[in-house]
Amino acid sequence: MKIIDKLYDRVEKLGFVCVGLDTSMDYIPDSMKDGKSIHDAIFAYNKEIIDATKDVCAIYKLQIAYYESYGLEGMLAYKNTLDYLRSLDLLTIGDVKRSDIAASATMYAKAHFEGDFEVDFMTLNPYMGMDSISPYLPYLESGKKGIFVLLRTSNPGANDFEVLKTKGEELFYTIGDKLKEVNDNYIGESGFGPVGLVVGATHSEEVEKIRKRYDKMFFLIPGFGAQAADSLNVYNLMIKLNAGVVNSSRAILKNWMNFEDGKTNVGKYAREKTIETYKEIAKNANL
Fold it and tell me: Rounded to the nearest 5 degrees, what angle is found at the Cα of 123, between the Cα atoms of 118 and 128?
């Protein structure tokens, strides 16, 4: 089974939530840090989140910056978290947003699609051009890996460049159209290909046009949760509650902080927030 079909199947069975393991030491209760190294504390915290949510989410996303910030200890936690997820046959996104010339991109592909930091999907930045994307294609052709490329992001500065006009349309549509051409070469049984797009849910006037235009591309949807994107926007970026995964990181990871007994029930409250996230968005199907 191709990795994109596996993701589609997971969303069908477990829902569209992507749990973001963007773990900071500040998020971890003191009781889980006392006497532990940075690596051990982060991994123990991640493991509790994973064990509590693995049957109510489709995939896990690890933002590598959080781990890099702690040096070798952090990267060991990153590796061991990925190893643990793989041992449970759970799907992973390495949120690394790489972009470089072809020679360097080849090495990035090797680093994150093989070896210690292997993931199922990577995030990429397309702004250096298509030759920065092409080194990943052999992995896509195999059906074993996928990518999510930045298209329309949810951050406040997204309008600085993404909406600049080129050929009468916003720049991000030019990028999306080029990626669509690549994706169409690798369509799986689910009707989707392994070239996905990162599409934020904070631009309500654009979501339906983007979804219709890139109907065979899977979306990674940030912005719901801490960034407070509207649930209807998120719903409109999917197709029948599939064709996309909705990332939530801080809202899930820090939910224990909202409860008096949270310090001893990190996993419980992460699970509750994951389920709540699904319900809040899925309710739009009945409107």
Answer: 120
